[in-house]
User: Fold this.
Amino acid sequence: MCLGIPGRVVHVMEGNGGMLALVDVLGAQRPINLGMLEDMDLTPGQWVLIHMGFALEVIDETKADEALAGLEMMGQARDSEAPA
Assistant:
């Protein structure tokens, strides 16, 4: 099982055959490799599911929100288990 984190495309970076995009993940922007996508023709604002620095698939905003909510719940559960 892998953990995919949603990120919003800020812009596709020039060079590298258009295989890199700057993606915003919860306010942090990082370059992500698009080489595993069937269609690398992305536009700013689109969401991608990221694993290990690679975009695995293009997702819609609803799926991105669901994934972020799940990640947030996992973090809250871990925080509530921590000793006081």
User: Anything to note?
Assistant: The chain has one domain: 5-81. Helices lie at 61-81. The first helix runs from residue 61 to 81. The beta strands are 5-12, 20-25, 28-33, 47-51, 54-59.
